[in-house]
Amino acid sequence: MPSELTPRATILHPSALPQVYDELRLRAAVKGPPGRGHTGRGPVMRFRVDAFCSLLLLLLALGAALGDSQARAFVLLPAVCYPTSWTITSVAVAESNPDPRPGGPEKASAYQDVWTHDQQVIANLKARPPATPVVCLLGGSSARECTISDERWAAQVRALGTKARTYNLGSSNRTFAESLALIRALPGGRLHMIVFIGVSPGSFGRRVTSASITLPAPTFPLPPWRQHVVSQDRILSLQAKRALVSRWMAEVYPVFQSQYSTQSMLLERLITVCKSRDLHPILVEVPRNMAIIGHAMDRPISRVRRTCRALSAKYSIPFLGGFVGAANLANLDFYDTSHIVEPGRVKWQRLLSRETARQLRHYGLGVPASSVAQ
Fold first, then answer.
1. Is there a cis peptide before residue 221, judged by omega within 30 degrees of 0?
2. pLDDT, tens digit (0-9, with 9 covering 90-100), for 169-187
3. Which option is the CATH number for 110-368: 3.40.50.1110, 3.40.50.1580, 3.40.47.10, 3.30.43.10?
4. b/e string for 155-169 if b means 16 or more Cβ within 10 A?
5. This prediction's pTM
6. For the chain, what is the largest distance between any 2 Cα atoms, rounded to a whole number of angstroms?
7. Which residue of 1, 42, 226, 236 has the smallest Cβ count within 10 Å?
């Protein structure tokens, strides 16, 4: 097996190129050499990535012109195209299956891997609803990064005297519409389930799109997946983090304002669909780096909190708006302004586990840790 520092031969289909491009652009923009923050090499790397992906397009077009029926190009990624500390995941996407399952012969990008995992969890729960209560966390990449692992989360809940199956179902750029599609796919009335719905200004700062899913076949046990993308080994500098706040207010906040009413309605719909399936929705703020943000995002943060408090009162559900302060997160707990790394996950998951155990008992789902095998 090649090491993570070894350039790899990658099979690319045209439909996979946007995902590779986005992944490379993200890494070029935010990752420098190990142990350092953003060093100013981002623009240079973005230029390299743009040139590299343009070359791939030409190669793919050439392959199609030469009569390759599947229009595939075989390209060896040279070391000069990316820092040796990066891991470039092999990608092979077939026309008939744009979302291969994790662990299969054709593995998609990190985003697809997580999204496919989320759908696999839903498929398995639908096929075999467990007697043990289920707890899941919905949200974007901030939610995905805020727990250590599903196993550690469940273990902490057991240590607090109760039992549940726990699943972090956060994934990059998750929309309320996608979360709604996941919940609608669950069997109504057959699960004892708490649904933590992660919210942040970023949740409302996306353009509204529709979403539908086709569940994969149930697979037991769950195939392996990679939850975490960021690490304390490489976090952004103070300057880079502050620049992200300014950029969010300049570029995302206008979208937040234009889409807010519709996104709020989708969030409310997510809550009502949960309740119609006898699930227990709980609104929870996901991490944000207040040491860097300060008062720069007071308007969007206050607006989200007002909406969550109103929905909490209307539907008699909890809104955990104090997690950000209670976790006592420091700047070094964050990769950027919203994604926590290893030290922050320890703090955040401890709070989440305590709240999970408390809510399980509140809703009468507190199965003693000594009973009911998972």
1. yes
2. 999 999 999 999 999 999 8
3. 3.40.50.1110
4. ebbbebebbbbbbbb
5. 0.71
6. 65
7. 1
